């Protein structure tokens, strides 16, 4: 089994030092005044991201529930998701152009959390309980797993980019939480180097999750499913 090379990080950042009493939303100015109430804190099992939603036409709640994550990965998941809410993604560390946003919208954070949970669950099932233990062979196996079981090429690509995003946040994280560079990020082709040509297909095609997020929010269901990392309930604004 090959071991992924250590990452030289061109952008220097300070590692996160989170306390259970710290607010999940660090910058209150991002929250509309009408929604500035009791915010979730890091120690909570459920993080409510609804205060960050800017569209008044959207009903329902956006939340992330951490008891859906493997126990060994809960602290890592909280650090990563907190960073995705409050820190810019170091997209300049990519060696190719990307349309990824540096500051994520709350719905995108929920999608990232869902895909992150799937990645962590898959790792835990293989007795891999720290990101620092992930190798190139692990990445290759996960990519093949997604292509076999996770539907359309676009959907698989979105799931792989969630792993890329977890790698990009490494400068904010302790050593055990740092992923090595995914092999698909060693090529200008990016995920296409793993997915193959754009006409790649699977018999088990599903509507890409990324396309369903706003219709789901409008109906107050925020990507809800029995195994989802995100949950919602109707609420009026």
Keywords:
three-stranded antiparallel β-sheet; globular; 6 helices; 3% strand; disordered C terminus; mainly alpha; disordered N terminus
Describe it for me?
This protein is mostly helical and 237 residues long. It has a domain at 73-222. It is built from 6 helices and 3 strands, in the order ββααααααβ. Strands 1-2-3 form a 3-stranded antiparallel β-sheet. α2 (106-125) packs across α4 (153-168). The radius of gyration is 17 Å and the shape is globular. The termini are far apart. This is Core-binding (CB) domain-containing protein. Residues 1-16 have a biased composition (Polar residues). Residues 1-20, 218-237 are annotated as: Disordered.
Strand order of the largest sheet: 1-2-3
Cα radius of gyration in angstroms: 17 Å
Shape by Cα distribution: globular
Summed over residues and divided by their number, the pLDDT gives a mean of 77
Number of helices: 6
The termini sit apart by: 53 Å
What's the total number of strands?
Answer: 3
Into which percentage range does the β-strand content fall? Answer: under 5%
The topology string of helices and strands comes to EEHHHHHHE
Report helical residue fraction: 25-40%
Q: Which segments are poorly predicted (pLDDT under 50) over 5 or more consecutive residues?
A: 1-12, 200-237
Largest sheet, if any?
A: 3 strands, antiparallel
Structural class: mainly alpha
Protein name: Core-binding (CB) domain-containing protein
Biased composition (Polar residues): 1-16
Organism: Mycolicibacterium gilvum
Region (Disordered): 1-20, 218-237
């Amino acid at each position: 089994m090959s071991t992924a090379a250590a990452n030289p990080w061109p952008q220097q950042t300070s590692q996160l030092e989170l306390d259970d009493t710290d607010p999940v939303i660090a910058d209150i100015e991002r929250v509309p005044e009408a929604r500035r109430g009791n915010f979730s804190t890091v120690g909570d099992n459920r993080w409510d991201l609804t205060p960050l939603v800017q569209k008044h036409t959207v009903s329902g709640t956006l939340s992330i529930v951490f008891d859906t994550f493997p126990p060994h990965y809960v602290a890592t998941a909280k650090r990563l998701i907190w960073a995705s809410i409050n820190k810019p993604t170091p997209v300049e560390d990519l060696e190719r152009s990307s349309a990824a946003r540096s500051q994520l919208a709350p719905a995108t954070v929920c999608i990232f959390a869902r895909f992150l949970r799937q990645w962590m669950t898959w790792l835990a099932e293989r007795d891999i309980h720290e990101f620092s233990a992930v190798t190139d062979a692990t990445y290759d196996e996960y990519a093949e797993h997604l292509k076999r079981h996770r539907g359309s090429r676009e959907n698989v690509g979105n799931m792989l980019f969630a792993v890329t995003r977890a790698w990009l946040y490494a400068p904010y994280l302790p050593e055990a939480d740092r992923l090595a560079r995914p092999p698909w990020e060693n090529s200008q082709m990016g995920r296409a180097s793993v997915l193959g040509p754009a006409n790649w297909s699977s018999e088990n095609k599903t509507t890409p999750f990324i396309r369903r997020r706003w219709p789901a929010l409008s109906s107050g269901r925020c990507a809800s499913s029995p195994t989802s990392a995100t949950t919602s309930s109707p609420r009026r604004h």
